[in-house]
Amino acid sequence: MTPFDTRLIPSGDIFIGGEWRRGRAATFASIYPADQSVNMEISTASAEDAKEAVEAADIAWRKPDWAGLKPHQRALILYRIADLITQRHEALAQLQRRDNGKPIAETRVLVASAAATFRYFAACLETLDDELTPSRGDYMTMSVHEPIGVIAAITPWNSPIASDAQKLAPALAAGNAVVLKPAEVTPLVSLALARICEEAGVPKGVLSVLPGKGSVIGDVLVRHPLVRKVSFTGGTDVGRGIARIAADKLMPVSLELGGKSPTIVFDDADLDHAVNGVLYGIFSSSGEACIAGSRLFVQRPVYAEFMKRLAEGARRLRVGDPSSTETQMGPLISAKHRESVERYVALGLEEGGRLLCGGERPVGEGREKGFFYQPTILEGLPNSARICQEEIFGPVLVAMPFDDEAALIRQANDSVFGLAAGIWTRDYKRAWRVARALEAGTVWINTYKLFSISTPFSGWKDSGMGREKGRLGIREYMQQKSLYWGLNDAPLPWAN
Ligand code: NAD
């Protein structure tokens, strides 16, 4: 029996140019990371399928029934997508859990956020104005916005439904066509979303969803001359490669990349809240979050006490069955990824780090069957250590004491990444100073990992370029055009 609602994905077909059919590449067995049981075999796209999807998209977006719709008409389709996501909320949350092993409590939140994302960008589409710019002569000037055309959206495996929605909603709202390539290991939710879009009235060809290998499908999409923008979320190395190709094509790219975010606890912080916040910041989603607070700086007077409480808290975290609402940490995505996390922990120990907790695979309660790993905290390393500088993307925290604010800011900013940061203090002036000095796209003060679709999200430095979310997020998928209207009855002076 299929372990999820098969009405969401009735067969192993994929969605190419508005048709459900087999992809021409090998089939892929989607695995539940908690016990390695097979969710479903689905077909995957070949390079030829990707080209067909792009060609269909290039025809579809220009038509009167898509880019030609008035904003409020296209918004209606986005509202319908949101409503269908909401109607299928529980089934989608269960499917997302099977797809990547996240605990059900988290996947329910992700599905709700995907629906909210479509509603938000529908509202943006209906309410964003074009501009009448100040005239400097006998003419009128306007600034209007047009769709870009075919967008390739490439997403990672850690929160597929939310990442997909953050790209699809603004790109579709803006009147583009989208070819979505989900991560190879998590294709299911993206296919379910394609069915919803189709049912909501997105015209044939405007959306394709192509599961398959990034190095094949992703590469074909990025290089294809009809693809006019790439919106990518994933690792920094792959993102840099995409940016190189985009430079040759002179094509805009949005890149949401990796992170190694510092969390800072000052000695005046509410330590109960800070302990909870730091644990949540690194260990929720098993640390498989770009914004995971993976470097911890604690002011020396409270360091020993704080670390003792933090390690006790980490040992109490409930790691196990993702279908239980009690579970706080599910498995990692795959055996290969867990091995990579384990290599980093071994490296940290070789570099002179000490384990405060974790560092092993949990045993019992059937967890041997899945890719589980204990919440792990190391200390005793400088910020220059490799495990403080490289993204691990797992449940591994490295803690360091600090003495004064200036040294702290230097160390916190001493990273190639600049995605997010957290500050715990009761001193609002210090919070302001430090938040402004940190090189990061998002800073949380006395909280962590809160997200709002109305607040822009972006990475600095090697964490990315471009913006997602916020009302201007839709402009990332539009081209600006200036119009000059001559109002003078006399001919242009030069022509006379
Ligand atoms: P990844 O870079 O390996 O893959 C991301 C996507 O790119 C996948 O769909 C993959 O198939 C595709 N891809 C791979 N090679 C490609 C190529 N040559 N050309 C085009 N596409 C290609 O990343 P991942 O392992 O899936 O995800 C983890 C990474 O994503 C982490 O670094 C994490 O920090 C980052 N991430 C960033 C954000 C953010 O918003 N900044 C959010 C989530 C995840």
TrEMBL record:
Listed InterPro entries: Ald_DH/histidinol_DH, Ald_DH_C, Ald_DH_CS_CYS, Ald_DH_CS_GLU, Ald_DH_N, Aldehyde_DH_dom
Position of the signal peptide: none
Enzyme class: oxidoreductase
Occurrences of domain Aldehyde dehydrogenase (ranges): 20-482
Catalytic site positions: E256
GO molecular-function term, one example from the UniProt record: betaine-aldehyde dehydrogenase (NAD+) activity
Keywords of the record: Oxidoreductase
EC number: 1.2.1.8
Source superkingdom: Bacteria
Family per record: Belongs to the aldehyde dehydrogenase family.
UniProt-recorded name of the protein: Betaine aldehyde dehydrogenase
Originating species: Paraburkholderia gardini
Designated gene of the protein: gbsA
